[in-house]
Design goal:
Blueprint: H1 2-5, H2 13-21, H3 27-31, H4 38-52, H5 58-70, H6 75-91, H7 99-105, H8 116-119, E1 123-124, E2 129-133, H9 138-142, H10 144-156, E3 159-162, H11 172-176, H12 180-193, E4 201-204, H13 207-213, H14 216-219, H15 224-232, E5 233-235, H16 236-242, E6 257-261, H17 265-270, H18 275-282, E7 287-290, H19 305-308, H20 310-327, E8 331-333, H21 337-346, E9 351-353, H22 355-364
Parallel strand pairs: 2-3, 2-4, 4-5, 6-7, 6-8, 8-9
Antiparallel strand pairs: 1-3
Helix pairs in contact: 10-22, 16-18
Length: 367
């Protein structure tokens, strides 16, 4: 990357291929003693590759247009597409697809019955902290209940929670796939929708989104709001530990349970949030946490990596699944929709949950 940036090497298709082999998990940032900003280098390289048109193919261009440029720039339309996909799934229409497309369809998330705007009021709770709640894209379509649980936990810990019913994509999917201008446009939309000077904290409950949203100042160096935004973004577990989360008086389940925790790459390596999720889990009565071997190794999801590099993704997933089985836990906790989907699809016998869902269950059981 350095040689190409300094024009010592010509950017060619071989370099584009190398950039598609990388997970973008940022484990190298955790390991690097010099603190190299690999995420910035990686995203800039992919942006240069797209600008030069090194990745060819009409099918690829159509998919990128339909997703990155069209749906993920239009949140209302994305929800309508989600409703259409929900109907498709209910009808079992995938059986009419060719075998290769059926295999891809099985990797898609199951669309929820209701989205975040149908579960969460624009303003809920009252208390010491005025909080902005980010609902995400995949999180909103497939895991809106996690957003509901997050708001419940924030309200139970003295927050006034503001959740706009329609929110733009944070832009992480665009930045990771070389579309910097689209990422900038979405960052500006979020700054307009949720001005950082109006809130004490901006909450994310998805590792990948949160990691990207801590770096708006790099995307928008001339927007004075971006630096304040970056300073106020918090992962939900991180915030709860900072404000001394209220320990629940009840257990989340009637029986004692054994759980394990998988670190989302961008939560652990991108945001450096490692202990807070474990601290939140360990607060709960009746829950025994077993540490997962290689818990911060990628599960193979890595955004669209499971689609672009399916064989390598499968190997990583099999390794992860083996370690999960070795814990004997029937519940896996993780805090990123990509990880959630990847592991649940591979291990249907497992109950995959977000840590905040357990805490919300425990609070509800106090009544």
């Amino acid at each position: 990357m350095r040689a190409i940036a300094t024009d010592d090497l010509e950017m060619a298709e071989g370099f584009a291929d190398e950039m598609s082999f990388c997970l973008g998990c940022l484990a190298c940032e955790s390991a690097c003693p010099a603190g190299v900003d690999y995420a910035g280098l990686f995203e800039a390289s992919r942006a240069d590759i797209e600008e030069k048109g090194l990745n060819k193919g009409l099918g690829r261009k159509l998919v990128r247009f339909g997703t990155l440029e069209f749906l993920f720039m239009r949140p209302r339309l994305l929800r309508w597409a989600g409703r259409g996909m929900r109907l498709w799934q209910k009808l079992g229409a995938a059986k009419f697809l060719p075998a290769r497309l059926r295999a891809l369809e099985r990797q898609a998330p199951e669309i929820g019955e209701r989205f975040s705007n149908e579960l969460i009021e624009p303003i809920e709770g009252e208390g010491k902290w005025k909080v902005a709640m980010l609902t995400g894209c995949v999180q909103d379509l497939a895991y809106a209940e996690i957003n509901r649980d997050t708001v419940d936990v924030l309200v139970a810990n003295g927050c006034e929670v503001h959740t706009p019913p329609v929110q733009p994509c944070c832009g992480s999917i665009h930045a990771h796939n070389g579309e910097e201008e689209m990422a900038r446009a979405n960052a500006r939309r979020l700054l307009d929708l949720l001005p950082p000077d109006s809130f004490d904290v901006i909450i994310s409950n998805a590792g990948g989104c949160g990691s990207h949203m801590r770096h708006f100042a790099k995307l928008l160096p001339n927007d004075g709001r971006a630096k304040e935004w970056d300073a106020k973004v918090r992962d939900i577990h991180e915030f709860l530990v900072e404000v001394k989360v209220r320990p629940p008086m009840a257990a989340p389940f009637e029986e004692k349970v054994r759980v394990t925790y998988h670190d989302s790459c961008h939560l652990a390596h991108g945001q450096k949030v490692v202990l807070p999720p474990r601290m939140v889990i360990d607060l709960m009565p009746g829950v025994t946490r077993v540490e997962l071997k290689e818990s911060d190794w990628c599960c193979g999801s890595a955004g669209v990596y499971s689609l672009t590099q399916p064989e390598q993704s499968r190997l990583l997933l099999e390794r992860k699944a083996g370690h999960i089985r070795a814990t004997g836990a029937k519940i896996l906790l993780t805090a990123n929709p990509g990880c959630h989907l990847q592991i649940q699809n591979a291990m249907p016998e497992l109950n995959v949950l977000h840590p905040v869902t357990l805490l919300a269950k425990a609070y509800r059981n106090e009544c």
